[in-house]
Amino acid sequence: MIQHLLHINHVSKHFGGNVAVSDISFSVDEKQIFGLIGPNGAGKTTLFNCISGFYPVTSGDIIFDNRAINNLRPDEICHMGMARTWQRVKPLGSLTVLENVIIGAFSITNSTKEAEEIAIEQLLAVGLSDYAQKTAGSLPIGLKKKLELARVLATHPKMLLLDEICGGLNHTETETILGIIREVRNKGATIVFIEHDMKAVTAVCDWIVVLNSGEKLAEGTPQEITGNPEVIAAYLGGGHNA
Amino acid sequence: MLNIKNLNAGYGEMPVLKDINITIAQGEIVSVVGSNGAGKSTLLKAISGLIKSKGTITYNNESLHTLAAHTIVHRGIIHVPEGRKIFPEMSVTENLIMGGYLHPKDRKKNMEQVFALFPKLADRRSQLGGTMSGGEQQMLAIGRGLMGNPKLLLLDEPSLGLSPLFTEVVFGAIQSINKSGVTVLLVEQNVYQSLSISNKGYVIEIGSIVLTGTGEDLLNNQDVKKAFLGM
Fold first, then answer.
1. ipTM higher than threshold 0.95
2. Distance from CA of A29 to the nearest CA of B (A)
3. If exposure means fewest CB atoms within 10 Å of the residue's CB, which of B33, B50, B57, B219 is most exposed?
4. Residue-wise over B167-188: b if at least 16 C-beta within 10 A, else e?
5. What distance in Å separates the CA atoms of residue B167 and residue A68, rounded to the nearest whole number?
């Protein structure tokens, strides 16, 4: 039987009078690549912030790996096996690329040698090994996105939350990242993927939820979603196949 | 309008751009495409005076090399940077006012144009920039650039983080900004959309221009198709 790894149960998040996320429910199955899409300001990143423990929810429950995580800290959630990347990338700018990834690896080992080995492996995987000794702050945005990915992979997560990881990458670079995502899934991880590049979303996602103005607009397979007139009107527009 | 000859630039001792030659005529949209780390943003920074460079950059027959970045803004070259770089502790309106600092008389008119282009910014005019979503910040960064009465607009990945529908809106907006008389130099990863609206394109690889042609030529070029369009 397929196990639900993540349950979002009637989750709402308000900022004062502003309702950013309104009564959202969905489940993510183990080993799924799950897409979360929607217009700018729909609440996608806010929902990620709730799931990963950076924002307390206003109401509702978040269940990860059979445990309610609403009241856990981000570091506790990370230790349970969930890792996330940031849309507005957050490298430790004055450290090297390698050191940034080593810090990710320290969540699963106390040995510096082991952490370095894990980090080098992940830099190779995302294609950043040539930049290992560069200062993280000096990378262009697309490479900072790859660094974000390497850093979360170094925590060997059960679930990855990826926030616009392909933003700022060209077609070839996006293909590399999608290849990594598929490989990570094949090794047993589950992925929730916020992305605007619909080619990327439809290429890798098994299931998609669409948010609009904080509410769930639709959910379904990539085929169902790209053919849904409401989704086309709110999000895709006419030229998404181009 | 803009003539770049044998441009070399970099950071410290690390060279990034090698002997770049680019010409932009008044009224054109010109795209520069290439992989991450190829030097696209560095090129824009060299033009707007944010980094030092060697070679010649002439703008309307004046050398930009001797000018400070703020003087270059006075000449009408406006740079919308990669990664938004909005003022997070200022409201949407205040961010826009900063963009129009040199043109207080045009502030009202320009702000109305920005709000017409991005109605979402009008809804959120008193919200702090830093609390907006990524895509909304991108809209604000473009809007702030437009407040400066650009003659030559340098756009660094304007579609980054924008939804597909909104990306179309922004590319449409770039075309209408261009039709109103603004010359545009565009750096984009959305190669299809940017070349589609460009008079001319340059492909840059590891700091050198390797290919140039009309937008249409490049869209039909086999190497470009393979590397950037996935066809």
1. no
2. 26
3. B50
4. bbbbbebbeebbeeebbbbbbb
5. 38
Q: Do B37 and A142 touch (CB under 8 A)?
A: yes
Q: Which of B198, B225, B193 is nearest to B214 (CA)?
A: B198
CA–CA gap between residue A219 and residue A205 (Å, rounded): 12
| Chain A nearest CA to B131, separation (Å) | 10
Q: Where does chain B hold its CATH 3.40.50.300 domain(s)?
A: 1-76+151-161+183-231
β-bridge pairing B2-11 and B53-59: antiparallel
Q: Tell me which chain B residues have a C-beta less than 8 angstroms from the C-beta of A235.
A: 163-165
Core vs surface per residue B189-218: b (16+ CB within 10 A) or e: bbbbbbbbbbbbbbbbeebebebbbebeeb
Q: If we measure between CA atoms, which residue out of A206, A172, A175, A173 comes closest to residue A192?
A: A206
> What amino acid is encoded at A68 in this protein?
A
A170 vs B189: CB contact, 8 Å cut-off?
Answer: yes
Residuewise pLDDT in 10s, chain B (231 residues):
999 999 999 887 778 999 999 999 999 999 999 888 889 999 999 999 999 999 999 999 999 988 999 999 999 999 999 877 899 999 999 999 999 999 999 999 999 999 998 998 999 999 999 888 888 898 999 999 999 999 999 999 998 888 888 888 889 989 989 998 999 999 998 888 999 999 999 999 889 999 999 999 999 998 888 877 776
B10 CB-near residues (< 8 Å, 6+ apart): B16, B17, B42
Residues of chain A found within 8 Å of residue B33, distances taken between Cβ atoms: 170
CA dihedral B189, B194, B196, B199 (to 10 degrees): -130
Count Cα atoms within 13 angstroms, Cβ side, for A75. 4
Question: What architecture (CATH level 2) is domain B1-76+151-161+183-231?
Answer: 3-Layer(aba) Sandwich (3.40)
